[in-house]
Amino acid sequence: MSPITTSILLGLTAAVANGLGGAVIVRKNWDRRYLRYFIALGSGFMLGTALLEMLPESLRLAGPKAPLLILVGYFVVHFFEHTVGGHFHFGEETHAEEFVQPHRGFSVLLGLIIHTFFDGIAIASGFLISGWLGWVIFLAVILHKVPEGFTAASIMLASGRSKSVAWFASAILGLATVAGVLTMAVFSRSLNASLPLASGVTLYVAASDLIPEVNKEPGIRMALVVFLGVGLFVLLQYFFH
Ligand SMILES: [Zn+2]
Ligand SMILES: [Zn+2]
Question: How far is CA 14 from CA 3, 31, 69, 152, 239, in A?
Fold first, then answer.
């Protein structure tokens, strides 16, 4: 299978996980506690992937231009998720007072759309380099996809939208991920820019979106699950790379 075909199939899988996350919140009787474990496990695994695989590969591809592109990727997410949107965090949105102006929900959704677009860019860029890099990035992405869809749907509910709009918001994140993969199918020669940018985005999502949610949890259990995520990554690297 060509790297792009594999990326499209895995991009679609990630998109399904987004929709599943949206369904968790729309269906009130579905248990959502386990989502915290995905956030913790995902953050550790993602940090391992970003720092030990994506960054070195970006430096190799883009040379001295890589660090600036990584920084740009990092701040693109900060700008769209947290500056334009104003109020954003992973997990269930319970601060309805932040969404008195209903359009606020859409500005936050825009931030998430940009982040998920780069999830797709990251998967396809990985596969264009090697099967190993593609798979490990896919795993880093899929681990936070369900909480991501859940977050988007809960923001829509907090800003007074209907359940169907809420679920649709999570589906849009899935579409944005697939759009990111397809973008790389067209611009596969821009790998030396796309991988460093996606590395910065991945670093942001892991360290600045997910870890803060882990730190909000009382006790040490969630903090330990982060190490489990890193450990899982290191094991995979040891056996498969
Ligand atoms: Zn909130
Ligand atoms: Zn994501």
Answer: 16, 20, 25, 15, 24
51 vs 9: CA distance, rounded Å: 26
Neighbours of ion ligand 1 (CB under 5 A): 93, 95
> Do 230 and 48 contact (CB within 8 A), yes or no?
yes
Q: Which ligand is nearest to the CA of 97?
A: 1
pLDDT at 241: 87
- Ligand 2 centre to CA of 206 (Å) is 9
Report CA(174)–ligand 1 centroid distance (Å): 22
Q: How far is CA 145 from CA 21, 35, 171, 210, 239, in A?
A: 7, 10, 11, 12, 25
Nearest ligand atom owner, CA of 149: 2
pLDDT in tens, 29-52: 777 778 889 999 999 999 999 999
Q: Which ligand is nearest to the CA of 87?
A: 1
Tokens of 34: 């386990």
The ligand whose atoms approach the alpha carbon of 112 most closely is 2
C-beta pairs of 24-30 under 8 Å, 24+ apart in sequence: 24/146, 24/149, 24/150, 24/153, 25/92, 25/150, 25/153, 25/154, 25/157, 25/166, 26/153, 26/163, 26/166, 26/167
pLDDT for residue 232: 97
| pTM of the complete model | 0.95
Q: What percent of the chain stands above pLDDT 90?
A: 84
